[in-house]
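Me: I hope this is not a bother. Any chance you could explain this protein sequence and its structure tokens? It all follows right here:
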Amino acid sequence: MMNYEEELRRLLKRYFPEIEPARWGKILLFYHEVLKWNEGINLISRRNPEKTALKLVLDSLFLLKVLEGNERVLDVGSGAGFPAFPVLLCLDIEVVMAESRRKKAVFLNHVIRLLGLKNARVIGEKVTAETVHKLGKFDAFWAKAALPLETIFSSGKECLDPGGKLILFRPFMERRKKRLLENMAKTHGFSTPTFGIYSCSELYLTRTLTVCQKNGDKGELG
């Protein structure tokens, strides 16, 4: 039977050598909390949850390839804390997690307390234009939950500082979809999208991260 904790350590070392081993402990603790709470509130799939959580951790960490550190990030629809917590545990960033489902928001706050995270907070409500205005501006924004593309760009335009990154978890490789994306980015004041493809072959895991930067120089008013 596979020891998933050892497997996670091995994969972190192989695919993310930039992560200091001193940070692995909290990643593993988060991994175990997901599995423990999953028995009661169904955070992730209950079919082989150990492997599912393992893949979700590795998939989350692909964001290290497009973030620089020191960003202020808004994560809408945070769910079980993927990708926010794995990234937060490896980079010195600040994350605001918006999760309107009460049980999942309770879990997110539990993890923040357990891990002693001072640079994370949970907003237990749906994000609206008014909410975003109260939260201030961000350097990066993503919504891994299935939101309409128009909603994602409108929210990104509202919440990001100039130069901020809107990060999409979709490939847009078909010519028609890519053209639609480029037109929407231009309409909302974003740069031409860039695409990065990252993979963990041992888990048959591939992720395309699509990044659009809000036009303007950092420091300008949005």
Remarks:
- The mean pLDDT is 92.
- The radius of gyration is 17 Å.
- The chain is about 40% helix and 20% strand.
